[in-house]
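User: Teach me something about this protein's shape.
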Amino acid sequence: MKKHSVVLLILFLASCRSLTFQDMRLNDASPQPLPPLEAIVDVSSLENAYSAGKVTVDTYYSPYSRYGTYGSSTGRIVKDPRVQDAVNLFQRDVKENLTRSAGQTAGFIRMKILNSSESRCFMCMFGSMLTAFTVNLFSVPLDYHSQTTEYEFEIFDVNKNPVARYVELTRSKTGIALWRGYVPATAERRDALMTLKQALFNLHRKVQRDFAQINNNLAKGNAQ
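Assistant: First, the predicted structure itself:
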């Protein structure tokens, strides 16, 4: 039995999948990009969603913003990679997909997590135990990690006047497998990224739908 357990552990560690570069970005350039906007993250909302009860460290997220406290954070934040993943993905998406790369900054877009929940399917392991984990050697998941997240995106002009607001509720589910699967921590990171990528994908469509109105309101703000 001990020998069998050691073999399973070696297989589990040797075959674990990791996140890829493509997991960290969204290739979905808007056909009509908005004027340049500064990407601002409400870091505290990400910390509350992902980081409860873990060790804290001092860190920077991005350059200081002229738009107030929603810029970078130098305070005590929790050392959870999902926070930095979300910041990097959002800021990159705004620069590469949602807005033009050149020109005068027309305002800022702010991302915030309103609600988030996670769950695991521990009951799934009973089926694996009944077969002595044999089925898991054929990529049947040992367990599942699921996440549901509600994101808020707000666009403001240079004078901090609200221009548009969108709320997106997205879900992701990742299998934790013994063979060619994700370990729990990586599954958590993947689900966090997938929910944000889906939210940004939906955001792009709604911004394109409202493009004329948003563009006009941003221009009015610059004219004041």
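Now, about its shape. DSSP finds six helices and six strands in the chain. The chain has one domain: 22-223. If you'd like, I can walk through any region in more detail.
User: That's plenty for now, thanks!
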